[in-house]
Amino acid sequence: RRMGGYTPAGRVAALVLLTDETWALAESRAARAPLTPAYYFGLALPLYVNWLFWTALGAVIGALVDDPHAL
Q1: How confident is the model over 21-42, as pLDDT tens digits?
Q2: pTM of the model
Q3: In Å, how far from its chain's centre is CA 7?
Q4: Which has the closest alpha carbon to 47: 27, 19, 28, 26?
Q5: What pLDDT sits at residue 3?
Q6: Who's near 47: CB < 8 A, 6+ residues apart?
Q7: In CA terms, which of 7, 20, 40, 63 is 20 to 30 Å from 28?
Q8: Cβ(21)–Cβ(47) under 8 Å?
Q9: What is the pLDDT of residue 71?
Q10: What is the spatial distance between Cα 66 and Cα 43, in angstroms, rounded to a whole number?
């Protein structure tokens, strides 16, 4: 309901980039002003890339731990 100005493809792209933080900040913005695609994607893209980076880093570092039970 907050994405009235989005195209159908824009809505799908927005859902692909959706994280908990993005949702919370977008809802906060939508309570004060219209949630524009420029605002949403400017918010969502850096947060999503950040999430991917730290997830990948955790997977790489986690793979270096031979026996997690020893820790």
Answers
A1: 999 999 999 999 999 999 999 9
A2: 0.75
A3: 19
A4: 19
A5: 86
A6: 17, 19, 21, 22
A7: 7
A8: yes
A9: 79
A10: 37
